Structure formats: C-alpha cells, structure tokens
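Morning F.,

Quick status update on the modeling queue. The single chain you submitted on Monday has been processed. Sequence for confirmation:
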Amino acid sequence: MKDEVAGLIVVDDGGSNTVVVTRNEIEVFPSVKGVYGDRTLTKVTSKYDFIVEYKGEKYVLGTLSKFDCEYPLQIFSKSKQHDFFDLSVLTSIHQYGYASNYLVVSVPVKMHTEEEKQGRIRRLRGSHTLTVNGVTKTFLVADVKVSAESATAYFVDKPSGMTRFLDIGSRTVNFSTSLCIDGNCRMIDTGSGTFFDKGLEALGEGFNAKALADYICGQLLAKWNSNDVVYLLGGGALNEELVSHIKFYFPNLQVMDDPITASARGMFNLGVIGYGMD
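Structure tokens below.
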C-alpha cells in the first residue's frame, strides 16, 4: 500500500488477467484463484504469488494458483457480483492501493445496468481487512465507479469522429462505438454490445480463429460498416491469426498499443475525469 493517504486505483478484473493502474504504475497478474487447502510445500517466490486470507477463508491467487492449484478457478458468468472478482479487486488494493481508495472497475457492456453497477458498488465500497502473504491491512474503498468494458478504450486517446472498439477477452467479447463531433462526444448504444461465452478461454484452447472471427464480424456488420475505423484490444489482439481474419472484414482495423492494458488505461483517464482529480 502506498504512502499517500488517498488516491485513484483502477482494477480491470478480467477472467484471465487482472490489470491494475494507479498514477505511477501498471501491474498485470493472472486472475485464476483456488482454495489454499492442506498445503505443505507452498512458498511465495515471485512478485505475483499471492496467499490471501479474507473473511475466514484462505486462497491462492495470481501466478501461484496458475502454476500450483488442484482446482484452478475461473468464472465465466455474465455478472461480476462474485467473490472471484471481489478478491481480484481487494488483493489489488492491498498490494497497490491506498488507505482510502477511489476505485474504478468494469462490467460487460450489456451488463452495464443499474442493477449490476449497484451490486458491484455494494460489494466493494466500505472498509475491508485482508491478509496477503502474511501482511494484514485494513483500507477503505471510499467510492466506486463502474465502467463498461471496451467503451473505456476511447479515453486512451479520445479519437474524433466515429470510432469502433472491439475488446476480445477471456470471458466475453465487447464492442462499443464513440462519436465525437465539434467537441461533443458520446457513446452510441446502438453500435455497442457484448457477445457472451465467446471469449478465448471460455471457448477453450482449441478454438477456431477463423470461425470466431466469422461469427464476431458477421454479427458486427449488422451494426458497423466494413470501412469503419476499428480499434482492437484485449487478449485476442495478441492472436495474429485472429487479427488477420478480423482484418478481412474490417480493413481499417488497428491493434491498440499494449492491448492487454488498454481498457484499464482508459479507465484511469475516465476516473480522473469522474472523480475530478488532476
């Protein structure tokens, strides 16, 4: 936890990776978790090995659970109102946050409802005490803002005109549209949405890149034009075969810089605006 008393922290708590952004750092660690159980040989040996104790339960997180867990857990539910996601956020704050935290998290575009947003806020806002790698801390989540996945990528560079964003993650595929004319910017709901259960890890290791691109782009062409400028982010942006098949449908496709952290970096810029911070 930082020396500063209060600050803005972003946690993009995905199914595969958790991305944390603060004013001075960006951290990425695996989201997979598991029950600690009756371990006798487990040691913390790397930066993202986490043994977490929270509300009477003990877990392994990060690289520790990725490489050494009998029942590695990843959640592919539509809602993020689950301990799996709470633990990603609270562990992130314990490691990289402040005594008092102004938090930004995310949900899929089609789950960006008042019910889902308020549910996440209720679970996260307030005082929390947890122990990570033997260190116990109590901190406050003073406020929570819930952003829409893919839409936050707009705030990385704030492009003018009409721009499309396609975020291919491990759980879901989210897409969004921004329109900026003469300084008036808005998100276009009719050009935005979510494909559930089409994320790379939800489909499994043997997914067919061409079939996935055909499915995604076939659906998008009902809302988007083939000559639109499309920015690609998320883990899918690192799959060259998938990118090439998507580019067949959208020739103006551009892979965003550091696509794994793009959404979280946009969330941070949005948080600066939303919380009125410098």
